[in-house]
Amino acid sequence: MRGLFITFEGVDGSGKSTQARLLHVHLSRITDVLYTREPGGTVIGERIRQVLLGDAAMTPHTEMLLFAASRAQFVADIVEPALDAGRLVLSERFVDSSLAYQGHARALGVDVVRAVNTVATQGLRPDLTLLLDIDPEVGLARARETDGKEGRRGFGDRLEQEGVAFQQRVREGFLSLAREEPHRVRVVDASRDVHDVHGDIVRIVDEFLRARGWRASSSS
To answer: Which residue stretches of 1-134 are H helix?
Structure first.
C-alpha cells in the first residue's frame, strides 16, 4: 500500500516545526513516519537552502526557481521513495508555500508558480495539508524571538525581512488555497496554546487516517 503525504503550512512563526514534531511523536506510536522539511532534506537541497537564506539579492523569479529546484530533488530522493515504501511522510512546507509566497505575495501568479512546481514534483500533491493560521504580526514576533533565543537564522529570514504587509499577503494566499481545497487544506487556529493546537491537529489527522483505512490512535 502506498504511503500518505501530510504537510504543514503557514506564515513564519505559526508553529510549524513545533507542531510537526509533536505530530511525529504521536504518529510514530502507530506507524512508520518520516519527518522532513523543505527547502532542504537532500545534499542539493541544503545547498540551495543556504543560498535562499543568504544575503545575495535575487529576483522573485530566481527565488521561485530555486525553491522548485530544491523541491524536485526532495521529491525524487526523499518523498517518493518513502511513499512507495508505504510510509507516512510529514513535511514542513511544500508547493503551497511557493503558491502563497511567490505566487500570491510576490505577485508572480499562482498559475505560473503551480505550473513550474508541477514539473518539479512530477505532479505530486499532499494528501492532507495542515494550515496553521495566525496573525502575521504575532507570527513574526514569535519567529524573531525564537531565532534570537537559539542564536540561529531560520528558514524565514529572507522573507521575514519583508515585513508584516508581505506576510499578510502570504496569509491571504494560504487562506485562498484553503477555500479552493477545503477537503485537503485544513485550517487550524495557531494563536492558541501549543497543546490546544496539537489536540486539534491530532483529531484532524486521526480522522483522516481512519477514513483512509489506517489505524489511528486515541487523541492526546
So the answer is: 16-28, 43-53, 60-74, 80-84, 95-98, 110-121
SS3 category, 212: coil
List the chain residues with pLDDT less than 50.
150-155, 217-220
Residue 113 CA to its chain's centroid (Å)? 16
- Concatenating the DSSP letter of every residue in 6-33 gives EEEE-STTS-HHHHHHHHHHHHHTTS-E
Cα angle at 7 between 101 and 147, to 5 degrees? 60
Name the residue with cell 537564506. 53
* Sign of the four-CA dihedral 131, 134, 140, 143: negative
The pLDDT, as a whole number, for residue 155 is 46
What count of other Cβ atoms lies within 10 Å of the Cβ of residue 98?
Answer: 27
Q: What's the mean per-residue pLDDT of the chain? A: 90
Could you tell me the three cell numbers for 42? 537532500
- Note the pTM of the prediction, 2 decimals: 0.91
Give pLDDT, residue 139: 87
Give the pLDDT confidence score for residue 219 in this predicted structure.
43
